[in-house]
Amino acid sequence: MSDEEKTNEAEAAEDAQTAVEEPTAETDESTGDDIPEFEQLNPNPPKSGGDLDLARFGGVHVTLTAELGRTQLTIEELIGLAEGSVVELNRAISAPVEIVAQGVPMGNGEVVVIDDQFAIRIKQIYST
């Protein structure tokens, strides 16, 4: 092998090693950490809900809550509660109760009794 071929081969090996060792990410000089670079992507526009098949979610259990009312007490008042105590709520008896699914208000209704159990007759379902 001639000296020129050896020189070319050595240069090619050095170039290959340099290419491998070059960082592909910027370095944050304040911390010395490598900051990876990512390709800029555009988010996909949301698809209309008309194409969504909701039937596949039919077996999922959801907690439905009917909120009768609320009140605020001091710690002293709370400690003083006993059997037979009456706590007044912030809602009139004729006011509709809030219906909440998994923490999200979904409508309102009125309290009814069916076979010795409370129930809610739905009066309004919120649009969104």
Per CATH, the class of the domain at 59-125 reads: Mainly Beta
Strand content: 25-35%
Q: C-alpha Rg, in Å?
A: 34 Å
pLDDT average, as an integer? 80
Head-to-tail CA distance between termini: 80 Å
* Shape designation: elongated
Number of contiguous helices:
2
- Which residues form runs of ≥5 with pLDDT under 50? 18-23
Main sheet: which strands, in order across?
Answer: 3-4-5-6
Oligomer: single chain
Quickly give the structural class.
Answer: alpha+beta
What's the β-strand tally? 6
What fold name goes in the CATH topology slot of the domain at 59-125? Surface presentation of antigens (SPOA)
CATH superfamily of the domain at 59-125: SpoA-like
CATH architecture call of the domain at 59-125: Roll
Percentage of residues assigned to helices: 10-25%
* Topology order in helix (H) and strand (E) letters: HEEEHEEE
> Main sheet?
4 strands, antiparallel
InterPro entries: FliN-like_C, FliN/MopA/SpaO, FliN_T3SS_HrcQb, SpoA-like_sf
Membrane topology: Peripheral membrane protein
Biased composition (Acidic residues): 23-37
Family: Belongs to the FliN/MopA/SpaO family.
Write up this protein.
Pfam families: FliMN_C (PF01052). The protein is an alpha+beta fold. The protein contains two helices and six strands. It has a domain of 67 residues: SpoA-like (Surface presentation of antigens (SPOA), Roll), CATH 2.30.330. The chain has a four-stranded antiparallel β-sheet, with no helix packed on it. A two-stranded antiparallel ribbon has the order 1-2. The N and C termini lie far apart (80 Å). About 5% of the residues have low confidence.
